[in-house]
Amino acid sequence: MKKVLFLALAAASFSFTACDSKKEDATEQAADNVENAGEAKADAMEEKADAVRDSADATADKMEDAADATDAPATTTAPATTPAQ
C-alpha cells in the first residue's frame, strides 16, 4: 500500500511540474517580447546600413563618371582636307 501511495504522489508531483505557472508564462512572454524587439531593431539597422552603402556606391559612381569625362580627349580637331589637284 505504501508503494502505491508513493507512486501516486510521485505521479501527481510530476504532473504539477509539467504545468507552467502564470508567472512563468508571463516571464517567457516578456522574454519573447524582448527578443522580438531586438530582432526588429537589428533588421531596421541592417536596412539603414544597406541604404548608406547604396548611397555611397551611387556617389562613388558619379565621381568616377565625372573623372572619366575629364580624362576624355578633346575631339575638336580640324577635319582632314585633301589637297586640290
TrEMBL record:
<keyword id="KW-0732">Signal</keyword>
<feature type="signal peptide">
    <location>
        <begin position="1"/>
        <end position="18"/>
    </location>
</feature>
<feature type="region of interest" description="Disordered">
    <location>
        <begin position="21"/>
        <end position="85"/>
    </location>
</feature>
<feature type="compositionally biased region" description="Low complexity">
    <location>
        <begin position="69"/>
        <end position="85"/>
    </location>
</feature>
<feature type="compositionally biased region" description="Basic and acidic residues">
    <location>
        <begin position="38"/>
        <end position="65"/>
    </location>
</feature>
<protein>
    <recommendedName>
        <fullName>YtxH domain-containing protein</fullName>
    </recommendedName>
</protein>
